[in-house]
């Protein structure tokens, strides 16, 4: 026991929970982030799932991690390195120690560090700390033994008792950071409301972990406080991940437009949770169909769009390949459709649980024929709501399929979300046919200003029609192979999408106004790029950030913004897709590049080092 406990106040702290897939690290991490958000801290999380569905227990490939960054002020990333590492077994210690700072505290379950456990994790010595050269403070707690002792009279079987170990670790971490443990109790009772005996067992172990730290001081020299100093906008907040925020954004858009929401989908990691979430909301008129394959999911959504619904299909990169023919059907029929692409590592089936930004060129150009399609990229878990809403608005008002890009990092990561006032969101007004058009209307009659065709819902009296995948006459809507007509229709479809630029916000620049370096990015890298900018400006450098949300069409001031700076670096989690695209669209700018394809988020330290080299070049 430490003789004297010092309480240190910190502005932010990073905690990483790690263990076997079955150790409940995702639940422990989610609960810690919820508890911290309740106390007024800003949060950013990163669930790091193993690629194996169920690796053998105790092996290196089966380690599941969850990193949470809590702060007094604004938190942009889950953090590069952790201040506390919970390692439930030797495999977790071996694979996750690289994420520790030199002064990090490591918490282990000594009962899981037997000779057999060390062999499974491929340790050569009986002392794993010596083998790894670890000199950090280590909290050694016999978590398994204490859980068994705590629940020996509970009536639960051994397997159920073992599942509570994560709550003991969570209780210990809550003590270390002076968290309100009663919030955790409330969360557990809500989660296991239908299994009260499981709820009681987990609550008891949670408090036991807290009291273990309280009574023994857990052999550490200090505990920590992360007070809330940020003045947040008043209102209700919740901890939300990107997939759930996307789901809510789709529901909100359907409500605003007065349409029924239809989702045609096929399960694929990491997008499946959107299907799961929307399936819970039948009471709101949401219809979800799990189809037999990807193209069926998309084709059924095209049919729902023709019938007058807000139609959505969800997938990841491999599914975009398979949906491309049905996506093109929506292009040529000019029907509103939202395609959500939660990007993951590739190529082929790639790394299903890892994050990349490698689908950009695919969604821009990866279809046969001239196939223009608006593309929007969400930049954070909470921004997924707004991005989904705007994708629906553009699709419905401009009669076009729209791709919404997210990625595994923001889809599974979470942040504190201020519940929005939907009355403040812009109206969604689809371009329906008007009664006075009856008798003269044709399927591809257009608004002369926007070039958007008018939408006739099947069953509307006087507007019987048919559309399809063959090229149609711009005048009559009949099938046409006329060369001049095909050129005209191709031009009209492209120009219709291009004119959307007048309806989207200008590209904004954050940071130093007279910057020597402009960082450009898109999608889920926003937090890391913003943090890198803050670090460099704090060092006296002049750096700014322009983060693209609307990728096709680009904001109308994009070229003007990019030409304003001496040096421009495009940072992305691919081999240069955005940089290449910008070279096509913007002349006269030399783009430096920072590219990584690791399946992991950027590391702020690596970004700042690379940007410093460009500044000094």
From TrEMBL:
Alphabetized GO MF terms: 2-oxoglutarate synthase activity
Domain (Pyruvate flavodoxin/ferredoxin oxidoreductase pyrimidine binding) ranges: 264-437
Keywords in alphabetical order: Oxidoreductase
A Gene Ontology BP annotation from the UniProt entry: response to oxidative stress
Pfam families given in the database record: PFOR_II, POR, POR_N
UniProt domain Pyruvate:ferredoxin oxidoreductase core: residue ranges: 515-587
InterPro entries noted in UniProt: 2-oxoacid/accept_OxRdtase_asu, PFOR_II, Pyruvate:ferred/Flavod_OxRd, Pyrv/ketoisovalerate_OxRed_cat, Pyrv_Fd/Flavodoxin_OxRdtase_N, Pyrv_flavodox_OxRed_cen, THDP-binding, Transketo_C/PFOR_II
Keyword Transit peptide carried by entry: no
EC numbers: 1.2.7.3
Stretches assigned to the Pyruvate/ketoisovalerate oxidoreductase catalytic domain: 22-210
Uppermost EC category: oxidoreductase
Membrane-spanning parts: none
Protein origin, superkingdom: Bacteria
Cross-referenced NCBIfam families: OAFO_sf
PANTHER family, per database record: 2-OXOGLUTARATE OXIDOREDUCTASE SUBUNIT KORA (PTHR32154:SF20), PYRUVATE-FLAVODOXIN OXIDOREDUCTASE-RELATED (PTHR32154)
Entry protein name: 2-oxoacid:acceptor oxidoreductase, alpha subunit
Species this chain originates from: Phocaeicola salanitronis (strain DSM 18170 / JCM 13657 / CCUG 60908 / BL78)
């Amino acid at each position: 026991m430490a003789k004297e406990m010092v309480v240190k106040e910190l502005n932010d702290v990073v905690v990483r929970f790690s263990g076997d897939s079955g150790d409940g690290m995702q639940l422990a991490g989610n609960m810690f982030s919820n508890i911290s958000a309740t106390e007024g801290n800003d949060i950013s999380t990163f669930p790091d799932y193993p690629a194996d569905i169920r690796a053998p227990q105790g092996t290196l490939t089966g380690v599941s991690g969850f990193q949470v960054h809590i702060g007094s002020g604004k938190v942009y990333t889950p953090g590069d390195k952790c201040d506390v590492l919970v390692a439930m077994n030797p495999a977790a210690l071996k694979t996750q120690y690289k994420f520790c700072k030199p002064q990090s505290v490591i918490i282990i379950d000594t009962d899981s560090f037997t000779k057999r456990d060390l062999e499974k994790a491929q340790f050569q010595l009986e002392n794993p700390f010596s083998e790894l050269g670890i000199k950090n403070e280590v909290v050694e707690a016999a978590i398994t033994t204490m859980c068994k002792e705590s629940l020996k009279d509970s009536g639960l079987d051994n397997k159920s008792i073992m599942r509570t170990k994560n709550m003991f670790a969570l209780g210990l971490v809550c003590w270390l950071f002076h968290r309100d443990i009663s919030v955790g109790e409330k969360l557990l009772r809500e989660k296991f409301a239908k299994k009260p005996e499981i709820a009681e067992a987990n609550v008891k172990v949670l408090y036991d972990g807290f009291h273990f730290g309280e009574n023994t001081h857990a052999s550490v020299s200090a505990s920590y406080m992360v007070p809330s100093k940020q003045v947040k906008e008043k209102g209700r907040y919740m901890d939300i991940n990107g997939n759930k925020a996307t789901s809510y954004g789709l529901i909100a858009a359907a409500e605003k437009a007065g349409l029924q929401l239809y989702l045609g989908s096929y399960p694929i990691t990491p997008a499946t949770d959107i299907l799961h979430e929307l399936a819970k909301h039948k009471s709101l008129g949401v219809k979800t169909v799990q189809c037999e394959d990807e193209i069926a999911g998309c084709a059924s959504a095209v049919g729902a769009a023709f019938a007058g619904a807000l139609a959505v299909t969800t997938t990841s990169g491999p599914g975009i390949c398979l949906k491309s023919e049905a996506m093109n059907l929506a292009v040529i029929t000019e029907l509103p459709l939202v395609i959500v692409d939660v990007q993951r590592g590739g190529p082929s089936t790639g790394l299903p649980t890892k994050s990349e930004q490698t689908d950009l060129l695919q969604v821009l150009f990866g279809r046969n024929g001239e196939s223009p399609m608006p593309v929007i990229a969400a930049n954070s878990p909470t921004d997924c709501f707004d991005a989904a809403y705007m994708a629906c608005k553009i699709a419905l008002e401009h009669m076009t399929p729209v791709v919404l890009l997210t990625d595994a990092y923001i889809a599974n990561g979470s942040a504190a979300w201020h519940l929005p006032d939907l009355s403040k969101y812009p109206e969604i007004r689809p371009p329906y046919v008007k009664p006075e058009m009856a008798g003269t209307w044709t399927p591809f009659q257009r608004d002369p200003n926007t070039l958007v065709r008018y939408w006739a819902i099947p069953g509307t009296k006087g507007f019987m029609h048919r559309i399809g995948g063959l090229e149609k006459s711009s005048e009559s809507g009949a099938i046409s192979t006329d060369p001049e007509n095909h050129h005209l229709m191709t031009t009209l479809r492209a120009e219709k999408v291009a004119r959307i630029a007048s309806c989207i916000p200008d590209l904004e620049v954050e940071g130093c106004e007279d910057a020597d370096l402009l960082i450009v990015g898109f999608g889920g890298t926003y937090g890391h790029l913003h943090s890198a900018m803050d670090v460099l400006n704090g060092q006296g450098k002049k750096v700014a950030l322009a983060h693209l949300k609307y990728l096709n069409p680009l904001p109308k001031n994009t070229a003007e913004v990019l030409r304003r700076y001496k040096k421009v670096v495009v940072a992305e989690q691919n081999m240069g897709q955005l940089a290449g695209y910008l070279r096509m669209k913007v002349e006269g700018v030399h783009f430096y590049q920072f590219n990584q394809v690791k399946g992991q988020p950027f590391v702020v330290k690596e970004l700042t080092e690379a940007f410093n080299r460009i500044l000094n070049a």
